[in-house]
Amino acid sequence: MGNQENLVLLEKDRGVTTVTFNRPEALNALSAALRNRITETFLELSIDAATEVIILTGAGRAFTVGLDLKELGGEIKAQAPMSDRDLSEAMKACRQPIIGAINGFAITGGFEIALMCDFLIASTEARFADTHARVGVVPGWGLSQRLPRLIGINRAKELSLTGNYLDAETARNWGLVNRVVPPDALLDTCRDLARDIVSTEIKTRNEIKRIMDEGWEATLGNGLDIELAANREHSRTEVRAEKVASRRSEIQARGREQSSSSRARGPV
Predict the structure, then answer these.
(1) Which domains does the chain have, with CATH numbers?
(2) What is the CA radius of gyration of the chain?
(3) What is the pLDDT of residues 13-50, one digit of tens each?
(4) Global pTM?
(5) Which of 25, 159, 178, 238 is deepest in the core (most CB within 10 A)?
(6) What is the rounded distance in angstroms from the CA atom of residue 116 to the CA atom of residue 55?
(7) Per-residue pLDDT tens digits for 134-193
(8) Among 15, 82, 107, residue whose Cα is nearest residue 54
């Protein structure tokens, strides 16, 4: 096993940080050392002013297959004591949007981590599964609550109570992932989307993400109140007429560019 620093790879480019689980020989199973390192990574990135968007992916054939069952079962010795810092809390602390680039297997704990991302782009090789019921563990990172809200409770029950696999195309049809692309286009697609995000006004987009996240956990009525309060506060403190005017031409130019690109590609 490589040293702890190499368990998570970081690549930074113009505001976009790509984070890669790097235990490909173990399908990126979350050993104690890897869990510690990925938790530390998100805590560090949450306060990194140079990181505006995070892309999370895995090396090799898996995004991550979840907790390292061999380590948990005592078949292999843990290379590090388990930290008491929680990965889900570390990801939640990130104000930056997190794009999940699902390159392969996202199983159980790995599925839960995928659901912690703001949205998912999947390779055609991606496969999702919730095997908590097969291994005798109740979810603890939010899968039982997030999954039904994304795909509907009946579909979520089918996945969680059977432990069956979900392929990428079905995941897209069910609304779990936004897009399915060939494996060699996955990171480029995510980076293009990340650059689109970076091109927006940072304080405004972070506030939009915050109120969407808070409203998702509230009733519609409470969510509307959250939005209205944010709108009034933001209008007083951040948005100025000159800022809106200065970006209008950029938005119009981007719209023309995307329209031209769509015409060039033709119907799909």
Answers:
(1) 4-198 (3.90.226.10), 202-265 (no CATH)
(2) 20
(3) 999 999 999 999 999 999 989 999 999 999 999 999 99
(4) 0.84
(5) 159
(6) 12
(7) 988 999 999 999 999 999 999 999 999 999 999 999 999 999 999 999 999 999 999 999
(8) 15
Please provide the DSSP assignment of the chain as one string: ---GGGGEEEEEETTEEEEEE--GGGTT-B-HHHHHHHHHHHHHHHT-TT-SEEEEEESTTEEE--B-HHHHTTSS--SSPPPSS-HHHHHHT--S-EEEEE-SEEETHHHHHHHHSSEEEEETT-EEE--HHHHT----SSHHHHHHHHH-HHHHHHHHHH--EEEHHHHHHTTS-SEEE-GGGHHHHHHHHHHHHHTS-HHHHHHHHHHHHHHHTS-HHHHHHHHHHHHHHHHHHT--HHHHHHHHHHHHHHHHHHHHHHHHH---
How do residues 113-136 score in pLDDT, each as one tens digit? 999 999 999 999 999 999 999 988
